[in-house]
Design brief:
about 80 residues, mainly alpha, two-stranded parallel sheet, 4 helices, 2 strands, about 60% helix, globular
Length: about 80
């Protein structure tokens, strides 16, 4: 439906203005969190440093309760710091 394409266009436009953007997908975050169990807090902190984090295909994959909780932690942390 063009959502991913539009998100990519927004990311590219911001990066042209030298604004850091991270565009990733839900499954990749779950995989990265599972692979970096001991470093998960640092991984979440890195995701929260970007002025804009774009989560593509959010909710398309079935995650574990733990994985979903960690993704919620990323979203909640960004929300509390006023970042999209």
């Amino acid at each position: 439906t063009g959502k991913s394409y539009l998100a990519g266009c927004i990311a590219n436009a911001l990066m042209e203005k030298e604004i850091p953007v991270r565009m990733t997908n839900f499954a990749l975050i779950l995989n990265d969190l599972a692979a970096s169990f001991e470093g998960r807090n640092e991984y979440i902190s890195r995701l929260c440093r970007y002025p804009l984090l774009i989560l593509d295909d959010f909710g398309m994959e079935r995650g574990t309760e733990y994985g979903l909780e960690q993704v919620f932690n990323v979203i909640d942390s960004r929300y509390r710091s006023g970042k999209p």
